[in-house]
Amino acid sequence: MLPAAARLTKSQEFRLVVRRGRRAGRSRLVVHALRPDPAIASSAGAVGEAASEVEQNTAPTRESTGSTRVGFVVSKAVGVAVVRHRVTRRLRHLIRDRLPALPEGTLVVVRALPPAAGATSDELGADLDAALRKLRIDRPDGPRIVSK
């Protein structure tokens, strides 16, 4: 389970990451990531001007922190509810182990594609690692994202 502080919850946050962030696609998933701009980011850890737009349009539900936050999009194209929830649980478990490798303040959206329904956790993990490496969002001073 991801802690509440590590979850994207508002549609505006998802929209922001998908529209302004970088994207890396694989056969089973697509990862969108929006890194903080250190020159613009506030001391509270906002993701530059883009995050301030989100904060102006919505009332905050909790204190904004500089922590990395992640959201998941698993549409009905992936399968019935049981399958979608299974894919979401697997992705949540996989990203939880990779959170320490991501820079503080990074916003990430993981979108599952229909082939994710039949994929194993190892296959999803390999796709997730490859997408994160392609986006080059691992910390230079922290743990590296490597595949098994």
TrEMBL record:
Record Gene3D superfamilies: 3.30.230.10
One Pfam match: Ribonuclease_P
Residue ranges, compositional bias (Polar residues): 56-66
GO molecular function, a single term: ribonuclease P activity
Reactions mediated catalytically: Endonucleolytic cleavage of RNA, removing 5'-extranucleotides from tRNA precursor
EC numbers, comma separated: 3.1.26.5
Stretch forming the signal peptide: none
InterPro entries: Ribosomal_Su5_D2-typ_SF, Ribsml_uS5_D2-typ_fold_subgr, RNase_P
Biased composition (Low complexity): 45-55
Highest rank taxon of the organism: Bacteria
Sequence segments annotated as region (Disordered): 45-66
Keywords attached to this entry: Endonuclease, Hydrolase, Nuclease, RNA-binding, tRNA processing
Its job: RNaseP catalyzes the removal of the 5'-leader sequence from pre-tRNA to produce the mature 5'-terminus. It can also cleave other RNA substrates such as 4.5S RNA. The protein component plays an auxiliary but essential role in vivo by binding to the 5'-leader sequence and broadening the substrate specificity of the ribozyme.
Family affiliation: Belongs to the RnpA family.
Quaternary structure and partners: Consists of a catalytic RNA component (M1 or rnpB) and a protein subunit.
PANTHER family in UniProt: RIBONUCLEASE P PROTEIN COMPONENT
Record-given protein name: Ribonuclease P protein component
Species the sequence originates in: Saccharopolyspora griseoalba
Lineage summary: Bacteria, Bacillati, Actinomycetota, Actinomycetes, Pseudonocardiales
